[in-house]
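User: Now give one protein:

AI:
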Amino acid sequence: KTEFDLCNFNVENLFDHIDDGGGDWGDWAPGYPNPESTAGQVQYLAKIAELAPVFVTDLKSCMIVGVEEVEGKQKVYNDLATAVSDLDAGHTWMGVYVESGDGRDISQGFLYRDDVALVAVNEVTGQPYSDWVDDGKLDFRRVMPHGQFRLFADTDDEIDIHFYVAHFKSKRSSRLCDTVDCTDIREKEAADMRDILKHHQAEGEGEGEGEYAIGGGDFNDVIGSTPINILDDSKDLYNLFYDLPEKKRWSYVFSGESEVLDHMYVTANLRPSTPGWSQSFSAVHVHADFPSDERASDHDPVRTRFSRCRALSAPSSLKVSINDVANGVDLSWDNDADGASTSVWESANPHFNPNPATDTPLGASGSTSYTHANSTGNATSNHFYVITTVNPCDGSSAISNRVGEFDFALTSGT
């Protein structure tokens, strides 16, 4: 059984204090309008110092983090990765991005740990991506990065994850849009994301489970909107926010109203109902509802911890022996099942069947014996036992043979 986690985080305008002449200089940059000023550098470094603990402490050193709203410059990604590495005693971090084509030089990319292998990172432009979408045309306003990451390389648990980080068109009006809030653009972006994830889900079907893919980021639209409905209507992907109760579905606060802007979609072969997989998803409420001068970002990150269990056959039923010891009984058995744990069940009914959902075992997980002290010597209280075994993939054995102890009350002369 293996576990890994992936996250998304809009870090809100992480720009350095240098004017590179690429559209990256304006009132979003620290020190504006005085490029390369000492005051601007102080602001930039302070921003990174606020962000770094979120990656290590709040996101639990999440293995791969898709990031949005970072200046399209490798040095900025490197500076953030270095700051995270300085706080993470167990790992060194790297950053990578692709050029987005954004007029302000806003980009998306990844931060990832040194125990994760980056197989490839590509711009989602042209072929083969355009061949995967229904209309043959990619409509992302900011070019997405596609990262292929390998986890647990060179082990039996090796797995490749395809990760796309999106930052959809904002609701700010534009002459490029047909609607006032540019919903038409986000609808096209959502359709493209749907089709790309659908491609990975279909890849290799018939031979296996398909490829594992995730599309996450700042989609700039809420649950129930038409762009999000386009994604939700596909059977090939799943929004992990639906694993949370409605009142906990938020990552952003606008005019006092909490809402989801930062979505994480997984291909259907990763969703919670898939055999062998389980997930724990959460929006990590760090700063989004703090005053603007007390937060590192106006968005909260989201995190998913995936658990994968390779198929294991159910363990065989155990044979248990019972022997008396002082004022009690000693149970023993052999347990050679792969990584299996055992449970000892007890009842006054000699023909009982344990129900793990409602009954509590006596114990003995991972052991091959159990002593039930002070269980003998009372004719009104007899004890019967069975043993069950569960392997790491939750495969359960049948119950063992039944053993027990009972006491006779002897009355003189009868």
